[in-house]
Amino acid sequence: MVFKVDGRIKRAIERDKRFMITTTKEDFPLVVQRASGDYIYDISGNRFIDFSTFISVYNFGDNSKKEVRDAIRKQMELLMHNAFTDYYSEGPVNFAENLLKMFPKGFGKVFFSNSGTEANEAALKFSRIFTKRKYVLAFYGGFHGRTYGSLSMTASKAVQREGTGPFGPVVHAPYAYCYRCPFKQEYPSCGMACLDYIKKYPLAKEIPPNETAAIFVEPVQGEGGYVVPPKEFIKGLREIADDNGMLLVDDEVQAGYMRTGRFLALDNFGVKADIYTFAKSIGAGLPMGVTVTRSALGDLKHGAHANTFGGNATVAAGADALLGYVRENMHRIESGIKERSGIMMKRLDAMKERYEIVGDVRGIGMMIGIEIVKDKKSKTPGIEERDRIIKEAFEGGLVLLPAGECSIRIIPQLEIDKKVLEKGLDILEEAIRKVSSNA
Ligand SMILES: Cc1ncc(COP(=O)(O)O)c(C=O)c1O
User: Fold this and answer.
1) Closest ligand 1 atom to Cα of 150
2) Would residue 336 count as lying in a domain?
3) According to DSSP H, which parts of 174-230 are helical?
4) Which of 63, 91, 213, 219 would be a feasible disulfide site paired with 127, CB 3.0-4.6 Å?
5) For residues 205-233, b (16+ Cβ closer than 10 Å) or e, as one string?
6) Which residues line ligand 1 (CB under 6 A)?
7) Per the confidence metrics, is the pTM higher than 0.85?
8) Separation of CA 435 and ligand 1 centre (Å)
9) pLDDT tens per residue across span 61-100
10) How far is the CA of 252 from the centre of ligand 1 (A)?
């Protein structure tokens, strides 16, 4: 593919810059118009393979499945907005009931909102109400959203917080980012120094454990750089929470909904949380946030939390249709993810062997990241190189998104055609080769 910025693309970008106050738009000139399955099409008819799933939203194909769109259309004809927090309706409750079938025994209760940040705001508020405690422990590199409660827990990039403090009572600790261990140790000989740190510093010197409501954690850090912690890390957090009467809140907004090969990413670690949050893929392309609590935590007072659009009839119809598809096809989906994950890991590991600038390849299921460095020995972050790879790949017909300081996320839809997957990996490799040869 030979991509050229034509007048229409140029005008669309200029108008965006004139009217929009702030965004996180990337350097590459993608002006989307439509999408179907594995591909994104721009307004000038250029076709791109999608390894971004529109920021981790279309786990089951760009523009969702036909049965999902049909369910949405049908509900729209009947009633679009149902005022679910004030009036009763069946659709969102059907979805809640079906969703809970994906959870371990003992879950529980569901709260609907419209985004990941709201799902986490609800989890934060609920944790404080349930425990009657105020502090929260969260992690560097963690991303939980951009509204005040969630932003207080987010510590991914300083620009996201710049000029907006003070924040809520949240203390951050280092995540188990083994490729760049903050303690300059190596796993497993480190003996999980990051867990010791939590016990010896924040919980011993800063926030009294008996006043700490919850530990908020992503099972795999997304925005922070596609960082996969060792199992012991998540298990250790569960133990710390249990030993101190804190709740473990698992943010599955990016890692959840089959992305790692399991419906709940946390299941890969053999750990259960007390509260789970979802958004992105769960709405099948429409805005939805979900907070799920353990039944034993009990209920909240009438009116303790609510919103206008949570449990929206149209969104719930789409979400339920997609969940129905996932449940009916679970075995095929699981084995498909395993197979595609294998293809991706093999190709990416080979790229790591071949190119000095590919420092690390890591992931679970089809949540895979590669970290770009100046060279393997120094591990100096290859920020420019990463950005150039993404641009080169775009011009070659592949959409990728960055993560963290110098990583690239590789998150095609979970049922991507295997030939398209290989083609996308070819484009990625060609981009890495080009950037490597004039690095
Ligand atoms: C793990 C995680 N939590 C929360 C959020 C916030 O979600 P939203 O942008 O829908 O508010 C994101 C968004 O990227 C995320 O990746």
Assistant:
1) 4
2) no
3) 193-200
4) 213
5) eebebeebbbbbbbbbbbbbbbbbbbebb
6) 115-117, 120, 143-145, 218, 222-223, 251, 253-254, 279
7) yes
8) 30
9) 999 999 999 999 999 999 999 999 999 999 999 999 999 9
10) 9
